[in-house]
Write a structure and sequence with these properties.
467 residues, GMP Synthetase, Chain A, domain 3, Helicase, Ruva Protein, domain 3, 10 strands, 23 helices, alpha/beta, Rossmann fold, three-stranded mixed β-sheet
Length: 467
């Protein structure tokens, strides 16, 4: 039990840290995500996961140590440790601080029409299921909603397809439109930005285009990787970025890959992307998948037995879209057969669905394993290099991704260096042609000299490594 003096010292320490890091950063990184205690010669900082521990230690460790010296008049070493229970506590506090997201009942269509903002989107932040794989992206999104001035510019969210990037971006836009009536928030895709820019050029309305996007308070661009290979659009977007940033306004961007891995982008834009906060959304954990399914079942007003939820979560691990698609299929199957949702019905309904998707293999796994086999890096595969080894590795990575994932040709092309979908199609056809023949071994170069192997044997080795 802490004494009254000890409690007062800890309160003073919290205030000292808040002064040094700033009230807003303290609110985001400490108030909802950390627990600080003093024990002998140590200041102990409990956090919900390793990511937050690394972030606080990397960005605020010096301020923490200085604050301890001011309050306790002695130097203490900082120790970071994981307290998983802080995750749920932090989640509850965030929800309690944003009742507007769940309690405000207004005609959002009328608000959008009167204010000239985006019409309300289907996805909201209060529907977003938070887990270890996306907690930092969610926290950062909430910070954008809460702060009138940009604290990190841009917020860049990246991750594989179907993991919730669009959900977060649309949720940010909806929340800002509801909670900050005086703010102008614009959401659009990279493709739409390019199309509007081209139309403005052709129609002589470039000033109107620039006035609209450079004067907004929050600009949200989904699928920003679409700007690859489009030099004029990139240059226009860079000027838009600079204008918004100079006014202290906020940009939020999303892509299926890290900014540094996006090919055919200008160095100026890439450096701007990484100058803010870059966060990744990973594949959801088993517990998070269960929570997503329960949330979706609640919205569908369906009672799904827990064993069914667990069965789906255990067998479908790729992304959120696959999970929700499986749940919808089960509900439709039960309605058409006029039977209750049971485990037997679920297994029957998903028999073909589960057999057609690989719950384990991801494009990142394929890319890294292929690169490792050929003594390359994923960056080599995504590059435009056309050496014999790189070309072979790239073609094999594209072929295996098409075979073992549900990604389309355009999605594979974007992931592997923003290649045209025709490039992916040609690569897959080339591998299929070689495989059908398989009369001559394929050759590639290594540091130890030329290597050869028949394609079927090569594919067997690669597939064994990625499963």
């Amino acid at each position: 039990m802490q004494t009254e003096v000890e409690c007062q010292l800890l309160d003073d320490l919290s205030e000292a840290i808040a002064r040094r890091v700033g009230k807003q950063k303290y609110k985001i990184w400490f108030k909802n995500s950390a627990r600080i205690d003093i024990e002998d010669d140590y200041v102990k900082i409990g956090v919900p996961n390793q990511f937050i521990a690394s972030w606080i230690e990397g960005n605020f460790n010096e301020q923490i140590i200085s604050s301890v010296e001011d309050v306790y008049k002695s130097t203490k070493k900082a120790i970071y440790y994981i307290q998983p229970e802080l995750f749920n506590g932090g989640r509850r506090r965030v929800t309690e601080q944003t009742p507007e997201l769940t309690s405000i009942q207004v005609n959002k269509e009328k608000i959008a029409q009167k204010s000239g903002k985006n019409a309300p989107f289907r996805m909201n932040l209060n529907d977003f299921v938070v887990g270890p794989s996306n907690q930092m992206a969610f926290n950062a999104s909430m910070a954008v909603v809460d702060q009138p001035e940009a604290r990190f510019n841009p917020l860049f969210i990246h991750g594989d397809c179907g993991l919730g990037k669009t959900h977060l971006l649309q949720g940010i836009c909806n929340a800002i439109n509801m909670r900050r009536q005086d703010a102008t928030c614009i959401y659009l895709s990279g493709e739409e930005f390019t199309n509007r820019f081209v139309l403005a050029l052709k129609s002589g309305k470039l000033d109107l285009f620039r006035g609209r996007f450079r004067s907004c308070d929050v600009l949200i661009i989904d699928d920003v990787h679409f700007l690859a290979n489009k030099k004029a659009s990139q240059e226009e977007f860079l000027h838009t970025f600079n204008a918004i940033d100079a006014c202290g306004k906020q940009l939020v961007l999303a892509s299926d890959t890290h900014p540094k891995m996006m090919q055919e982008f200008s160095d100026s834009l890439t450096s701007r992307f990484v100058s803010g906060m870059v966060v990744k959304i990973d594949t959801p954990s088993y517990e998070t998948r269960c929570a997503i399914l329960m949330k979706r079942a609640e919205k569908m007003e369906k009672i799904i037995p827990m064993p069914v939820i667990e069965y789906i979560a255990d067998n479908i691990r790729t992304n959120v879209r696959e999970l929700e698609g499986a749940l919808l299929k089960i509900a439709a199957y039960a309605a058409l057969s006029r039977e209750p949702i049971t485990m037997a019905l679920t297994q029957e309904a998903l028999q073909g669905h589960i057999s057609n998707i690989d719950p384990i293999v991801r494009v990142s796994d394929i890319e890294s394993k292929v690169a490792k086999f050929f003594a390359l890096t994923p960056a080599d595969i995504r590059s435009n290099r056309k050496t014999r080894t790189v070309s072979l590795a790239r073609s094999l990575a594209m072929y295996l991704t098409r075979k073992h994932t549900n990604m389309s040709f355009p999605e594979i092309g974007r992931y592997m260096g923003n290649k045209n979908h025709a490039t992916v199609i040609l690569a897959c056809r080339k591998i299929e042609t070689y495989l059908a023949d398989n009369s001559k071994p394929l050759a590639w170069d290594t540091t130890e000299g030329k290597q050869e192997m028949y394609l079927k044997q090569l594919l067997d080795k690669l597939e064994e490594s990625i499963k």
